[in-house]
Amino acid sequence: MTRARRRFTLLACLGVTALAGCSSGASGVTSQPASLASAVPSPQGVDVAAFHALARQEASDWPQSPLGKVWKTGLVIPSADYLTSIPSGGFSSGNAKLAFGKGDFVYTGPPPSGAPAGVVTWHDGSTTKVPVLSEAQAFSALKTNDVGRCPGCRTTPVAVTGAQPTTMAVPTSRGTASVPAWEFTVSGATGRVFRAAIPPGSYVLVDSVRQPIQKLGPLGKAFVGTTAARMSSHDGRTLTITLAAGPCNSGATWGGLVAEVGDVVVVGGWIHDPHSGTACTGTLTATRVTVRLATRLGDRVILDAATGLPVAPFPFHGRQ
User: Fold this and answer.
1) Residue % of the chain over a pLDDT of 70
2) For a designed S-S bond to 191, which of 88, 112, 152, 289 qualifies (C-beta 3.0 to 4.6 A apart)?
3) Could you report how far apart the first and last alpha carbons of the chain are, in Å?
4) Are 88 and 139 in contact (CB under 8 A)?
5) How many Cβ atoms from other residues are within 10 Å of residue 298's Cβ?
């Protein structure tokens, strides 16, 4: 699992206490109780009214936030790691694998003929024009990529014997998109290696947008943030959300919180740990719970209440 795949996993645990009781929110917010595997029905340790108030504030802030301004119109990618592909077949040697992670390449091939078309094609067939990187610029980006990074490893340089213009699929806030790319032939790689040919400034990276964690004290110590969310029903109304909290949770009960405010769905969670007074190992544990929406999710954005940032799954159907 790469750093980008881990980007949306395991937020810091915000503490635990005993729980029970859930209320619907205030005006402008709709919510449905979480569906839990356990018999405990509601989060007594969380101030649900405070959660709804926070949801309204985050929904109000979203349209003018750095990501909100471009979420439905721009090229928004989860992480820079998605701009470089890992060979589908892996590597033929340990040196090749380490060299790839270190960016220890030397170009030995002929100059490429042609260049990628400067067009992004969206999943609905529409297109957007973008500038493109030259082969030399893309090769430089490949050498400094963060996929499998191993800067301190000792390696022998790996030869890159060719480059040709192509496209590659990347996950975006608007679904999977086909973007201009260069395909490199890398010695020791048993699959194709792609590097997106889109320059900085033509896209926005979610993990480059820093936003301070909200002041969550009023919500109660039982509240925890979410790390991922995905639609898990054919009717478009059931969300499976991933929660992360501390390790003193053998026999713990978890639950989800959801508030729907216009075009925004805000999610959070809670944990009841019967052993919260015992020593902890210092690791985090993740679990999945479901929440039921009042209406279909559609193209609404899903925000984590703890950060105000998207936790949408970035629909992605694999690389080309």
Assistant:
1) 79
2) 88
3) 19
4) no
5) 9
CA R_g for the chain: 22
| Coil vs helix vs strand at 267 | strand
Q: What is the pLDDT of residue 43?
A: 79
Q: Where do the structural domains in the chain lie, given as residue ranges?
A: 10-65+211-304, 76-207
Sequence length of the chain is 320
Q: Does residue 23 surpass a pLDDT of 60?
A: no
Sole residue written with tokens 């999610």: 267
The mean predicted confidence, pLDDT, of the chain is 81
> Which residues are registered as beta bridge partners of 301?
264
Residues 145-201: pLDDT tens digits?
Answer: 777 677 678 899 999 999 999 999 999 999 899 999 999 999 999 988 999 999 999
| Separation between Cα atoms, residue 77 and residue 75, nearest integer Å | 6
241 touches 291 (CB < 8 A): yes
As a whole number of angstroms, the distance between CA 88 and CA 112 comes to 23
Q: Which CATH class is domain 76-207?
A: mainly beta
How many angstroms separate the Cα of 50 from the Cα of each of 33, 56, 70? Answer: 16, 10, 28
Which amino acid, residue 260? Answer: E
Quick one: residue 90, left, alpha or beta (phi over 0 = left, psi -120 to 50 = alpha)?
left
Whether the CB-CB separation of 297 and 47 falls below 8 Å is answered with no
> Angle CA(151)–CA(202)–CA(174) in degrees, nearest 5?
100
Residue in this structure with the two tokens 């503490």, named with its chain if needed: 15
Cα dihedral angle (177, 178, 184, 190), rounded to 10 degrees?
Answer: 70
